[in-house]
Design brief:
36% of the residues lie in helices and 14% in strands. With 367 residues, the protein is of the alpha+beta class. It is elongated.
């Protein structure tokens, strides 16, 4: 007898075979779609984490910048209190007290409420070479000390002197209007005082590279014909000593413990306390560092409207604040910021240089 049982495959119709193949193909598509969605979700998660990290860093940077600005204001307030070495500026004698920040001294380290490290330094601009007051001999020594050839040093020094003086008489190695035209320059000497060190870019023979090398060592605010070695930026005394020796200015100051004796006596002048540079550097617990710098000028008497209008037009001033006070005679004194800028961290000593490690911040005095 023949069995009526048949193998399932033997009874499958061509249509059912086709349906099975289509189902398998659809399953592959579904799996691919699921994989793509998983990749998209992963990418979205990574992107979100990246954006969150960027936002967190931006918030931390803004916080560090605000803390650094607060540090600058802290030093400015201390200047207004007078007392100590900074009292030479004739600041607010109505609020006497010991000065925490002494011009030319080492950085002061203190602790902020959430464990941030704040380093603050104060320096008198009298430690720099004033472009408006320095003699051609001092300027020449500065250039020679920066290792410029003697001929170029003389030319640069005389060009600065011709740029700032009111006459059209050319110095032996200087540059007046005819020299600028001969060099193809559309400008000429200002025949007036430098308003800022940025105007070095307009002096014939001083290119951007040389101007950048000069920037840490020059000012337009000290109103002094020489420099105070105790307030000088690192390296300036040695630069002028080299330049002075090359130009024959070998008579130095009486020996002093701080090394100021290396400065040629012809280039020495005590700081007047007229202008100060303040640097504030913040280190967050995360390791993020931010530094800000302010140049402030002591102005006796009421601030002139023309000065304030010029300062407000100056794009380098991002925070214009004035702190009023009175000197010992009761005359009005204003501490006026001339520039307020972000600078690269490390301008002042790092936490290692000051002997402050991350673990030791908690032991510092509060700011």
């Amino acid at each position: 007898m023949v069995s009526s049982f048949a193998h399932p495959d033997a009874r499958a119709s061509p249509g059912s075979t086709r349906d099975t193949g289509e189902s398998g193909f659809a399953l592959v598509i579904v799996l691919w779609i699921a994989a793509l969605l998983a990749l998209a979700a992963t990418a979205l998660g990574l992107s979100s984490r990246t954006h969150i990290s960027i936002s967190r860093n931006a918030v931390a940077a803004d916080r560090a910048e605000m803390l650094a600005d607060a540090g600058l204001m802290l030093v400015m307030r201390d200047l207004m209190r007078g007392g100590g070495q900074a009292g030479a500026a004739g600041l607010d004698a109505g609020r006497p007290g010991p000065a925490r920040f002494v011009p030319g001294a080492a950085a002061v380290a203190c602790r902020l409420p959430d464990g941030e490290l704040l380093l603050l330094t104060l320096a008198d601009e009298g430690g720099k070479v004033d472009l408006n007051q320095a003699s051609p001999e001092l300027l020449r020594a500065l250039f020679v000390g920066l290792e410029l050839p003697e001929a170029r040093a003389r030319a640069a020094a005389d060009a600065i002197a011709d740029f700032r003086d009111a006459d059209d008489t050319r110095r032996p190695d200087g540059a007046e209007a005819d020299d600028y035209r001969a060099a193809g320059s559309s400008g000429g000497p200002k025949n007036a005082a430098f308003a800022s060190i940025a105007e070095l870019a307009f002096v014939l023979g001083i290119d951007d590279r040389l101007a950048a090398r000069l920037a840490p060592f020059v000012t337009v605010h000290s109103a002094s014909s020489g420099i105070d070695a105790r307030q000088a930026p690192a390296g300036l005394v040695d630069i002028l000593a080299r330049g002075g020796e090359a130009s024959g200015n070998t008579t130095t100051l009486a020996r002093q413990a701080d090394g100021a004796d290396r400065l040629p006596a012809a280039f020495a002048s005590p700081a007047t306390g007229r202008a100060f540079t303040i640097v504030a550097e913040v280190t967050l617990p995360s390791g993020l560092r931010m530094a800000r710098q302010a140049l402030v000028v002591v102005q006796r008497g009421a601030a002139r409207a023309s000065d304030l209008e010029r300062a407000q037009r100056d794009p380098s001033i991002t925070r214009l604040r004035q702190l009023p006070g009175a000197d010992a005679s009761g005359a009005r004194v204003v501490l006026r910021p001339m520039a307020w800028t972000r600078i690269a961290p490390g301008t002042q000593p790092s936490d290692q240089d000051t002997g402050v490690s991350g673990d030791a911040v908690a032991d510092l005095p509060p700011c």
